[in-house]
Amino acid sequence: MSTASWDIYAEQMAHLKYGFPLWSPDPPPGGAPIELGDVGWVREGEFIPLFNAFRDSDDRQPHGRVPAGFSPLSLQDMMIRGPREKVSATMLCSRGIKSRNVSAGVAVNAGTPSSPSGTIDFSFECYEDSGALLVPRPRMMEHVILSTRPIRAYMETHFDTWFEFGAHTLGFDIKEDDIRFVIGTMKTSQWEVAAFRGHSRKMIGHFSGALGSGAAHLAMSTSDFRPAEVHHRAGPPGRLEHQLQADGDSTASSAGLGEQSSELGAAPTPVVYDQCVFIHYYKRKRRRLPPFGFRLKGGAGPSELPRRPEDDRGLSPELVNVGGAREDGSYGRGDCLSPSSVSDDDSESEDVTVDPVDYLLDYILQKTSSDTAIASDLELYASLGRHWQVRAVSSTCTAGCS
Q1: pLDDT tens digits, residue range 295-316?
Q2: Sheet holding 190-197, edge to edge
Q3: Fewer CB within 10 Å: C terminus or N terminus of the chain?
Q4: What are the Cα distances from residue 183, in Å, to 9, 36, 156, 328?
């Protein structure tokens, strides 16, 4: 079982179905925000772009070059929705967290669009051994591609050159299965993320902070007196520093020690939504011989019914209704994958990032004669419907019904 903060966070926030959760939503210094058409991989909770499939080879490519034989994918005739508001919530939590008390307030200068700040005080109980929190400010904006057939065809044609480009031209230590094509982004302006892992299934926590300032605190207590591992990040750093300065100036002004910008007629700066907290994506997987300890079973019978959460404490897999795979590597509804379990007996202590799309790719390859499988997280959500759960237990990762 991974104890890395980004793995705990990704595992615990996957149930929201907003895409893959990023522990590091902010681009690196000098880097560009994540955009539709970015092709890259996720390292320690941060999306690392290789190139953008929609831009020309000389148009702001992340590394100034592109894969061999590159030709951009045209956006003409593609249906794209957004950016538009998707979620306006004070806090998003993992499944096992139950609220005891939550209160939110408004900071001194929170009325201007350029300073989406405020305060929050949140007490909760967690009934799992792990949990995660996300505080997006002021809201989350979604931008997503709805016309996905051209993307699937484009991946099938050019994917091999992408891996060659990333692994050999750029020298990244990646596998084919790591590469993702971004078809959707969920962005905010400022954020705080937290993840924790303990040793019991009953923990009490308290989160408090001044949103937008990065001054947040998360404390956990457990029933067995063994401390939980607690991780926390806030960002973006440069914007937080500016926010702290703005808070100080506003406080000084209200005390008669300075002038407020509104008195000088200064127009408020629009909120910039460039911090990507979730991504929707496509992945491709090639058929290969299974490693030792790999087990994948399809075609559950009617007697194999989904178990209730209280019947299963995370120690065994459950049914996954992902639809029936077709011979062309796509899938349809009406079949079952049961149970789906990935395990490597030689690496039980290895930290593994859970990506639920991998289970759908494995299922497609198991049910068809196709040499490759292509699937997205949105296709997985649509097929599973409300029967959705992601768990990681030791080295075994399970997607199943709740």
Answers
A1: 544 444 333 334 444 334 332 3
A2: 92-93, 130-137, 190-197, 229-235
A3: C
A4: 21, 5, 16, 21
